[in-house]
């Protein structure tokens, strides 16, 4: 990364409200945008980019204000992810996943655990990664008295080498009970493999990890008291919460694609030689493309903001979350996830109709928006999200909490 961190971030007062933090995120996006295409091609480990997130204060957005955090809620966090993703989908994903794993202690842990984790994370500006891919079920957790030992492998570990701490997940040996714990990313027993080589989201450090005898004290097992897990319905809110991160990641990438394409069209797209117009911005079909795609994007952004506000009401009173409230929220999340997927794919491919053949040059980097959306939207089949909505409409069925619903 060739750009530098604005020096006045260190001297300016920290933002105090949602709009202030969104402006700060826009400043970060402006820095990232200067060389986003080049960094995407290089695919280098984004150490500098993560330091930018730390210097700007975005990593501590959800942290308690009394410990140096931003004291903000999920409504703001989603908007910040969307803003950063306009410039760089990879860094937007890293930040969004960081927010979820930072919040995991509160979702799963006891009050004593999450208060300690959130205070330390805010004070030390921890950047979180997660080795919690649910389709890999071979991480075994062995009970050795006062200590738990994690051993196995995960195919994906987003954040890996750029993280300060990593959330681990495994199954307690001889049981069906899952255990979550937070460990130092540079600790003994964790080996991150440089095998993330996909067409999009190239800078997310999402490769595999080997977990070889990572030791964790029993008191650090999230949600466990005297080796027994204390379940709450709120524990199951992790899926709709991260799915809304996905939604805002997709919408941010789509908005960035539109903004970048519009700038190209204003300055470089040539009018069609048989159209009779002197400028591309006057071509009726070009105007129609931007009008159509923008209207669709704005509609889904409005739905995403509404669903985020609905979710915040659940986060505001975790102990009062019921199975019905959680299920109805998941249906709403599923609906906006389906629409965000469709509109982001349409926008990131449709812009080329308005920018023209020359815009497909590799140096322009316009393809990265589509590659990023196409890669991440395959995380889980969108048809199953539509099914959740359809089943609820037709039968009143609520989605059963799983790793994906």
- The H/E string reads HHHHHHEEEEEEEEEHHHHH
Total helices: the number is 11
What is the terminal separation in angstroms?
A: 37 Å
Number of domain units = 3
- Uncertain runs with pLDDT below 50, 5 residues or more? none
Structure classification? alpha+beta
CATH hierarchy, class of the largest domain:
Mainly Alpha
CATH-level-2 architecture of the largest domain: Up-down Bundle
Pfam families: Acyl-CoA_dh_2, Acyl-CoA_dh_N
Domain Acyl-CoA dehydrogenase/oxidase N-terminal: 28-117
GO molecular function: monooxygenase activity
Organism: Streptomyces glaucosporus
Structure description:
The chain has helices spanning 18-33, 36-42, 47-56, 74-87, 89-108, 111-124, 238-267, 284-316, 323-355, 367-376, 382-395; strands at 128-131, 140-143, 147-154, 165-172, 178-184, 190-192, 209-217, 224-225, 228-229. The chain is of the alpha+beta class and 405 residues long. It folds into 3 domains: 7-127, Butyryl-Coa Dehydrogenase, subunit A, domain 1 (Orthogonal Bundle), CATH 1.10.540.10; 130-229, Butyryl-CoA Dehydrogenase, subunit A, domain 2 (Beta Barrel); 233-395, Butyryl-CoA Dehydrogenase, subunit A, domain 3. The strands form 2 sheets. Strands 1, 2, 3, 4, 5, 6 and 7 form a 7-stranded mixed beta sheet that branches. It is globular and about 80 Å long. The model has no long low-confidence stretch (mean pLDDT 95).
């Amino acid at each position: 990364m060739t750009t530098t961190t604005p020096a006045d971030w260190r001297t300016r007062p920290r933002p105090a409200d949602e709009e202030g933090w969104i402006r700060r995120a826009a400043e970060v996006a402006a820095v990232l945008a200067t060389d986003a295409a080049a960094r995407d091609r290089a695919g280098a480990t984004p150490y500098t980019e993560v330091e930018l997130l730390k210097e700007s204060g975005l990593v501590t957005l959800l942290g308690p204000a009394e410990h140096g955090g931003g004291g903000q809620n999920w409504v703001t966090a989603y908007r910040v992810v969307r803003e950063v993703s306009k410039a760089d989908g990879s860094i937007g994903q890293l930040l969004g996943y960081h927010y979820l794993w930072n919040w995991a202690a509160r979702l799963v842990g006891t009050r004593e655990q999450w208060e300690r984790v959130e205070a330390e994370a805010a004070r030390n500006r921890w950047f979180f990664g997660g080795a919690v891919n649910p389709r890999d079920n071979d991480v075994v957790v062995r009970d050795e008295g006062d200590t738990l030992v994690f051993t196995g492998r995960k195919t994906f570990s987003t954040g890996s080498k750029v993280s300060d701490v990593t959330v681990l997940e495994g199954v307690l040996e001889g049981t069906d009970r899952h255990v979550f714990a937070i460990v130092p990313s540079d600790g003994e027993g964790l080996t991150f493999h440089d095998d993330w080589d996909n067409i999009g989201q190239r800078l997310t450090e999402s490769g595999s990890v080997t977990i070889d005898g990572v030791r964790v004290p029993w008191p650090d097992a999230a949600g466990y008291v005297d080796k027994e897990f204390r379940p709450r319905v709120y524990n199951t809110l992790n899926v709709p919460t991260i799915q809304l991160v996905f939604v805002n990641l997709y919408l941010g990438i789509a908005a960035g694609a539109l903004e970048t394409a519009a700038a190209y069209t204003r300055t470089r797209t040539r009018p069609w030689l048989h159209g009779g117009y002197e400028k591309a911005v006057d071509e009726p079909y070009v105007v129609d493309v931007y009008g159509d795609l923008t209207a669709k994007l704005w509609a889904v952004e409005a739905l995403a903001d509404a669903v985020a506000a609905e979710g915040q009401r659940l986060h505001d009173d975790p102990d009062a979350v019921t199975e019905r409230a959680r299920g109805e929220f998941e249906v709403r999340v599923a609906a906006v996830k389906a629409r965000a997927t469709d509109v982001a794919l349409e926008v990131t491919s449709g812009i080329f109709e308005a920018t023209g053949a020359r815009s497909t040059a590799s140096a322009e980097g316009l393809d990265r928006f589509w590659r990023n959306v196409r890669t991440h939207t395959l995380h889980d089949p969108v048809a199953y999200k539509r099914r959740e909505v359809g089943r609820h409409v037709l039968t009143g069925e609520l989605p059963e909490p799983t790793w994906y619903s």
